Amino acid sequence: MSFRKFEDLNALCDRENLPMFAISQERIDQITALPVPNRRCSTYKKFIRVDRDCVYKGPYTLFEKKFYRELGNKFAIDMLCRKFNLPNINISIQSVLMFQYSIFYIKYDKVHSPFLVPRLHDHRDCVGVTVKMIEKIHNCLKVCDAEELLVDVEVRKSILQHLYFRYLLGIGDIGTHNILFDHDFKQVYGVDFEEMGGVRNPNTKLECLDKKKDSLKKKMIFEPYINSIWQPSEQELEEIEEDLKNYFIDSKIVIRRMKYFKTFV
Ligand SMILES: Nc1ncnc2c1ncn2[C@@H]1O[C@H](COP(=O)(O)OP(=O)(O)O)[C@@H](O)[C@H]1O
Ligand SMILES: [Mg+2]
Prior knowledge:
This protein has helices at residues 6-15, 25-32, 65-83, 153-169, 205-208, 216-222, 234-239, 241-245, 251-262, and strands spanning 20-22, 47-50, 54-60, 93-99, 103-109, 120-124, 130-134, 179-181, 188-190. The protein is α+β, with helices and mostly antiparallel strands. Helix 3 packs across helix 4. 28% of the residues are buried.
């Protein structure tokens, strides 16, 4: 799915109370001068630009599937958490920035690392452009790199619930590599909703929730809580059919995934 016209984006922003602002070329230049957190391995990947208190992802064009999904999938998870009254660890989107109706950036809250001033180095990108890159250890930590820091059981459960909703909706690139620790290591935030696809041939519940094969550490941290994931019934999913349709999600496929997950003990 992608936006078919500008009005579709406008309608989504209105529905989700998401402000959209027109920006100038100067502002784009400021955003593109900001440092990036990671190596971009292909031109197909969007840039993340890290500012003091926010992060930008883009540039997107209106009709790109990734643009719709990054917004729509995130808001669909918000909707599930709201409907079923469950904790939501999604990152917050502050606004959409638009240049001349053709270039768009998504502006997010920043997940803070313990380093107030990030250490930078020059990096030659995959297209030969030199960008300022943040030293790896100066970025916020991904949960997949330090699962043992998840000391709070409720946080572990909220991650499993979040990954389960990603699984139900068929959001791709699923796993703890897209969950970030805030600097105190107590709060976590789910990011990166633009892929679709889920996991190929999962053999366990945990494998449905993480495309990287279960590591021993991951099993120890999450497996004891895997059955505490709240799972909707078929009727509950039927009741939100219209809400799912708002995000172009077919409730029949969601129900199929819900049933498949239940086949694992
Ligand atoms: N809201 C955020 N706050 C701080 N860092 C972020 C945020 N979003 C993304 N990042 C950084 O950018 C990296 C890649 O982000 P992600 O959205 O997963 O994009 P990609 O499509 O490149 O995987 C993250 O691992 C993290 O280091
Ligand atoms: Mg990612």
